[in-house]
């Protein structure tokens, strides 16, 4: 595992442990629980991004349903995620196929030459 994925994993575990502590603390308010949940989500996204950057793997959290969402919303979110991944993959493959800035010389003329040619 690369250094970035190890760091992201450590941060995710740390966020999960803190989340568990906050949820078990009867004195924790709603806001504190929400912040702990947001940190877990952020850490999970960072970990999934590190995994994707490392080997192009899909998110290990992609198929985890949110118990607060109905099935149609989950299906819609999955479809949206798949579309974004496909678009990102297509963009990445086209970027490698034709690097920008390599236009043929006859298509792009420097400003001084365009005036001299007329």
From TrEMBL:
Biased composition, class Low complexity, residue ranges: 103-118
Renumbered residue ranges of the record's region Disordered: 85-118
UniProt protein name: Uncharacterized protein
Organism expressing this protein natively: Herbiconiux gentiana
């Amino acid at each position: 595992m690369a250094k970035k994925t190890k760091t992201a994993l450590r941060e995710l575990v740390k966020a999960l442990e803190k989340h568990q502590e906050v949820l078990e603390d009867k004195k924790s308010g709603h806001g504190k629980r929400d912040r702990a949940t947001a940190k877990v989500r952020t850490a999970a996204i960072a970990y999934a991004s590190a995994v994707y950057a490392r080997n192009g793997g899909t998110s290990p959290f992609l198929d985890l349903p949110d118990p607060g969402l109905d099935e149609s919303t989950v299906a819609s979110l999955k479809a949206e995620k798949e579309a974004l991944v496909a678009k990102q993959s297509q963009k990445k493959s086209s970027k490698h196929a034709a690097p920008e800035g390599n236009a043929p010389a006859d298509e792009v003329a420097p400003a001084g030459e365009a005036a001299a040619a007329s």
